[in-house]
Fold this sequence. Notes:
Elements: E1 3-10, H1 40-51, E2 54-61, H2 69-88, E3 92-98, H3 100-108, E4 119-124, E5 128-133, H4 137-161, H5 168-185, H6 188-197, E6 207-213, H7 217-244, H8 248-266, H9 272-297, H10 303-306, E7 310-315, E8 324-330, H11 348-355
Parallel strand pairs: 1-2, 1-3, 3-4, 4-6, 6-8
Antiparallel strand pairs: 5-7
Helix pairs in contact: 2-3, 4-5, 4-7, 4-8, 4-9, 7-9
Amino acid sequence: MATTLIVHLVHGTWPAGPFKGGGNKLPASGSDCWFQTGHPFYKSLEQELRGRGFSPTILVLGWSGANSFAARADAAMVLAAVLDEFAKKGFRQLIIGHSHGGTIATQALPQMKQGAGSVEVVTLATPFLQTQRFSAAKSLWSLLYVTFPLLVVLFGALRYQTHGQDDAVYFVLFPVMILIGLAIGFSAKQISLVETETKPNVFVGARLLCVRGLADEAGLVISAGIGASHLLRGLLIRIGGWLHGTPDWVKIAGVIALYGAGFATYLGLIPLIYISSVAIGILLFFTAVFLLSVGQATLGRELVLSGLVLLSTVESTPDVTGGKLEIRTLASGASKTLRHSIWDHPDCVRTIIDWV
């Protein structure tokens, strides 16, 4: 008699690809994505399971696919509820999650009310993220504290260059808008969300198989973003550390002087040539912050600004407490597609079935 097995397929970020309808919209065809019924992976998985004596019921967790910690947290909550319903009935369950779909799977297990003893998890090319706060964040705050008056200098230069055109509203509103944006980015709620969703995963009674490829493209992109962010952060911290160590009265006097210089330039009292170097410095600084933000945002859009106070790392396997972890690395030479599309590897399905 065939053993009933409930299989949950969980796709990752941008399941249709980053350039198709924003990445979140699934194609109309039922064979383009690995978790759709007409795809070779889906058909091979079902066929192999039946050949091994299982009666599989394959379900797909539909979630937004957004590159967001909040979206993944919401999907994990939904998945945990679905797992609980089948666990109440005593069914054996298997989750196969690709990329951040694996993240969702591992986050769902601790939320199960019925316990994860009947659940087995397979992650395919999943980047496991962890973050922590770093003590030098105050140095960056000091640098930002001084930078806002420098923006005034820049706008004064622009006003002087445009021969006095009416840009007074930008003179006031632009720094305010940046302050508001930073306040949102550094909000405690957002940082807390990222920290909560990147805690080391804890498996209680669950078996876990991590299937990964060599030089996975998504992992390389994320690692490159993190590496660039760390380098830029180190440079900014060195500059900000010097500012942070100066007495408060010196900072206040410097801010007042910079604001006065900006206002004088705005009135046309200071030639543009004297502050052009300052303006270039400001642009270089914000370019560095922008690049740092872009690097962090490869992990999730919440890190666009909150990444300034969080250090991030990415690994191909998670930290595990309890449960059993096994790792399989599939050589990329046998696949004709991107290594992140590991479901196309000829040994992928067989590796999963043998483990199950």
